[in-house]
Design goal:
Helix content: over 70%
Radius of gyration: 17 Å
Strand content: under 5%
Number of strands: 0
Number of helices: 6
């Protein structure tokens, strides 16, 4: 069977899509940890103010926007945006993985490691962006 070379833009969009799904699943599964829903109802959580929610929204809008950016933006800007945001999210997820080492949050550590790998692959793919159509 013949395998086809996948365009780097599609690779990047796929990696950002997978990372975005992992972020969503991690936040969703966190709702099943003991006391989480009760603390949300009482307003005792990290995102306890309009500004905190807005800041979290600014951060979490980046991965889904990078899916679109990866497909639509010209190569030079696209490459650098993927390197910058891929590096930022890789570092952020590594820090979250080390900060979540408790029995109830092993799922979160697992997802953070997967997310780190995906966003590191974003950086690697962007750094190795072919220079022209004849490059592999």
């Amino acid at each position: 069977m013949k395998d086809f070379e996948i365009n780097v833009k599609i690779k990047l969009a796929g990696l950002w899509t997978a990372a975005t799904f992992c972020y969503l699943y991690g936040d969703y599964f966190e709702l099943y940890t003991p006391g989480k829903v009760d603390s949300l109802i009482r307003g005792e959580n990290v995102l306890h103010s309009p500004m905190a929610l807005f800041a979290a929204s600014l951060i979490m809008v980046i991965p889904p926007l990078m899916i679109v950016v990866s497909l639509l933006v010209k190569p030079v800007l696209n490459k650098w945006l993927n390197i910058v945001f891929g590096s930022l999210f890789t570092l952020m997820m590594i820090l979250i993985a080390f900060g979540s080492l408790t029995p109830w949050f092993i799922f979160y550590v697992f997802l953070a490691i997967i997310e780190s790998i995906l966003t590191a692959l974003v950086v690697w793919s962007a750094l190795n962006w072919p220079r022209n159509a004849t490059d592999s």
